[in-house]
Amino acid sequence: MLLFSWIHCAVGRRCAVKSVCRSLSVVPLFALCFSLAHAQVNPQFDINAYREFLASHRDLTYEQLNRLHSSGLFTAGARTDFQSAAYFDSIDAKYRLTTYEKSLVGKHGFVVTERLQPATFGHAFQEIYNCDLPVFISTDAILHALHMSYDEILMQVERSVLSAKLDSLLAALHNALPALAAKYDSIPAMKPMLNDIDVYLTVPRSLLNAGAAPKFPENAAVVGQLLGFIRNQQPVKYPLFSGTERDIDFSQFTPRGHYTREPELTWYFQAMMWLGRTEIYLIAPEGVPPPRQTDQDIQRQTIDAVLINEAAELSGALRIIGEMENILRFFVGEPDNVTLENVRSLVQETHLQSARELLDVQRWKDLQQTLKQQSYAFQRINSQILYSDPMDPDGIKPASSFLLIGQRFIVDSYVTGSVVFDKIVYQGDKVRRMLPATLDVLFALGNDAAGQFLRTELDQYHYASNLAALRYLIDSYDQSFWQASLYNEWLNAIRTLDPPGDRAGLPAFMQTAAWWQEKMNTQLASWGQLRHDNLLYGKQSYSGGVICSFPESYVEPIPQFYDAVRQFAESGAAAFQQPFLHDDWIRSYFVMMRGIADTLAAVARKELSGTLLSAEEKGFLHGMLHYGYGCGDMFSGWYPHLYFTGETGVKQVDMVVADVHTAPTDALGSPVGWVLHGGTGPLNFEFVVTELPDGRLTAFVGPVLSYYEHLSTNFKRLTDEEWKTMYAVEPSFRPSFVNLYLADSKGGSRPDGPSLLAGVSDNEMKPLPSALLLGQNFPNPFNPSTVIPFTIPAGLAHARVELTVYDVIGRSVKRLLSGDLPEGHYLTRWDGTDESGVVVPSGVYFYHLAAGNQRAVGKMSLLK
Q1: What pLDDT, on a 0 to 100 scale, did the predictor assign at position 16?
Q2: Has domain 767-862 been given CATH number 2.60.40.4070?
Q3: Is the four-CA dihedral 294, 296, 196, 365 of positive or negative sign?
């Protein structure tokens, strides 16, 4: 049986150790050929030691992985006499904590509750300020300001710089095409490639400007067909620039993130998505079944790439591309493909005078052989639909592809694609794990404790060796990698929230399992915001009056986090002083952020060391929010200044979602189109009781982020607008590990959740939850389509699942889903059609979910 595979392959990508990659066959392919030079790992990286590590750590068990990366034991609780804490009575009088919420404060020293959901961080802090309560300044609050500012600055750059440059670039290249046509007019064999270039450039120009037309009228039909695929936003098979069909996932063209806010941003998004994902093959994919790209197909596309290079040289577009690349490298990172600069180098190295020379088969083969020897030849992240035979021992090797402005290499996407089919090989066989877990990302990035919550997956899918190899590589990155882009620096700030090995010097509440599970929520929420803000560019694998005051302030004491934020700001300030991005206003924002992060880091270090704060530091914390007169609703102070748009940003309600991984089929090869999403929900209030440097036990309150995740089917990619209603649909999509410290929307307990190891008693196994949960479809009533949410609990993981629509007399209308599903939260869309694709009449319909021996039914209404 053939399966789709969304995997990351690093074969030969700027790899100085190709001999190592070829000589080792004892470990999964992905682990052998990681790009050392391009990925900016430590120059002292010992290749022989890495080879020995791979050879000696194949077929690892969970226990062996845990011994390699043990997080140690956490404390089961931090018994706290919260009733005697200063200001607790005032906090309780305002927020009326429930009995269960108080029990969690008494057990862990803190609680987070869904019962209290402030609209924004600004409104939460204003409320605390107006009530003269002690404020808890969480890392969540800083990360949220960073996200809001990054997203706004990126949008401003896209509006004012990138969109105009893209328009100029495409126009310049397209307008050079008649000159190329005249140059090759006497060579009929060049005509198909000239048509390819016309189509390649007309499509994004049409997306950016509806009035664009092909230079050659005979290409109008092909352009119209491709634009139709983009509008339909579903995968198709299509012979793009080739005589052989390939699978193209046009669902990626669904506008989402901030690109739905303005039509111009939507147009820019889709045009850039075309340029970032439309691969021009230079070397065909390997390890895939027929139909395969022929030599003639690849020869044709190689000429396409060289013709685009000639158009760039004729039109002067090289400067524009260089400027765009500089900006995108600064924000996100390096492209993961053969670039125009690479094509130019290849042309020079092979002494190619004209694209026509590649009509000679031997000349083309010589160029291709030269390409194979280059460090830039191959992709590390495959982001296309490819097939793989589970019985074939060879893995997929993605094509060597040219893209004009390709999507970027992001290490977290490399992680998610390296722990799924067909990258997992256990005892010589490929393992059919179709979806990653978001905790795979946290573990690979350094959070040892996250591995404890992966035990069930690791025992079932045997991918501990993959995670061990990823950790080895990522742990080898030096500072140059983490400072290479704002994306990496944000990711590095998230990494600083990993639990330290030595927790003895931390406040009591920060030594508990519950606290570090709360930090996993913070990490995943910020990661979801990071992926959301960069979803266009990051390459996806297939989350007077009364004077008010804060009588006390407590900064979450993780100084290395504030150091990382300072470095993020330092890089931003430097970049916006450069000619390619010069903007004094944006630079001044980053300079201000750097100063705030400096002060917060100093305060956090004093809190950990038990040193009293200076008068200046206390004054800084009290100035978090303040007003010109009384206690009005005008925001000022250093916290609003952390938002690039100031008061507007701090008062803006923000819940975002990002699609982070796609699995076209289930483990049996049935098409399902699973899309894994991570997103943020409403803010929650957190109450913390801890001891200050002067020995006083004090209670604090502050807002924190919430994190949700789920799967959609049928390649459905969610927008922020859809997410604002979907996140709250029963059942809850929050990961179960939050239940240890979280009170529900009524201030009561949530279902039992897992805990990090905190002693012998914590190893006792609890029964896996087994209740099937089917939510109400939305919208309801609906026209023309609706979404049906459901949850597969751990106790029903990998059971046979069927979701079917019936009419009121019990006739089957359409089977929406049939397959073995892992544990998780799912959304499935019904478009109001039957099995034949015919639209059904208005009326009442029932949706029936069966999983294992359990059944559930929901009712919905189609109105026209």
Answers
A1: 33
A2: yes
A3: positive
**Who contacts 811 (Cβ-Cβ below 8 Å, separation ≥6)?**
none
Residues with Cβ within 8 Å of residue 277, at least 6 apart in sequence: 252, 383, 384, 403, 407
Helix (H, G, I), strand (E, B) or coil at 705: coil
Q: Are 300 and 282 within 8 A, CB to CB?
A: no
343 Cβ neighbours under 8 A, 6+ residues apart: 305, 306, 308, 309, 402
Residue listed under structure tokens 């995670």: 467
Residue 184 φ/ψ, nearest 5 degrees: -110, 20
Name the 3-class secondary structure at 20: helix
Measured between its terminal Cα atoms, the distance across the chain in Å is 42
The per-type count for the chain, helices as H runs and strands as E runs, is 29, 24
**What is the pLDDT, as a whole number, of residue 622?**
87
Structure-block tokens of residue 749: 């307990």
CA distance 187 to 384: 34
Q: Return the H-helix or E-strand segment holding 660.
A: strand 657-665
Identify the H or E element spanning 246: strand 246-249
Over the range 62-75, which residues count as b (16 or more CB within 10 Å of their CB) and which as e?
beebbebbebeebb
* Residue 567 and residue 146 in contact, taking contact as beta carbons nearer than 8 Å: no
- Closest alpha carbon to 438 in 823, 11, 726, 792: 823
Which pLDDT does position 499 carry in this prediction? 97
* Number of Cβ atoms within 10 Å of the Cβ of 815: 12
- The candidate with the shortest Cα–Cα distance to 292, out of 239, 328, 369, is 239
Judge whether 31 and 463 are in contact, CB under 8 Å.
no
Between strands 235-238 and 246-249, the pairing is antiparallel
Residue pair 95/701 in contact by the 8 Å Cβ criterion:
yes
Nearest to 525 by CA among 600, 533, 76: 533
pLDDT at residue number 243: 96
The predicted structure's pLDDT at residue 42: 56
- Which tokens sit at 720? 């922020």
Q: Could you tell me if 849 and 774 are in contact, meaning their C-beta atoms sit under 8 angstroms apart?
A: yes
Identify the segments of the chain with pLDDT beneath 50. Answer: 1-41, 543-547, 628-632, 731-732, 760-766
pLDDT tens by residue, 778-802:
889 999 999 898 888 878 888 889 9
Question: Which has the closest alpha carbon to 113: 134, 133, 89, 91?
Answer: 91
Judge residue 218's burial from the number of C-beta atoms within 10 Å of its C-beta, 0-12 exposed, 13-18 middle, 19 or more buried: exposed
Contact 805, 846 (CB under 8 A): yes
Calculate ∠ Cα 337-284-294, nearest 5°.
145
Burial class of residue 705 (count of CB atoms within 10 Å of its CB; 0-12, 13-18, 19+):
buried
For 396, the token pair is 């997929």
Q: What is the pLDDT of residue 546?
A: 43
* pTM, entire model: 0.85
CA distance 197 to 351: 23
Cα–Cα distance between 426 and 460 in angstroms, integer?
11
DSSP three-state, residue 248: strand
Are 690 and 702 within 8 A, CB to CB?
no
Which tokens is 828 given? 């499935």
Task: Report domain extents, the chain.
Answer: 3-73+412-484, 87-148+489-534+556-660+672-762, 155-402, 767-862
Q: Under a CB-based contact definition with an 8 Å cutoff, are residues 260 and 254 in contact?
A: no
Give the residue from 731, 817, 729 showing the smallest Cα distance to 779.
729
What does the pLDDT read at residue 39?
40
What DSSP string runs through 187-207? -GGGHHHHHHHHHHHHHHHHH
Q: How high is the pLDDT of residue 3?
A: 29
Kindly give, in sequence order, each residue whose CB lies less than 8 Å from that of residue 99, ignoring residues fewer than 6 positions away: none
What pLDDT does residue 392 have? 56
Beta carbons within 8 Å of 738's beta carbon, 6+ residues apart: 112, 517, 518, 521, 707, 750, 753
* Token pair of 23 as six digits: 């000589």
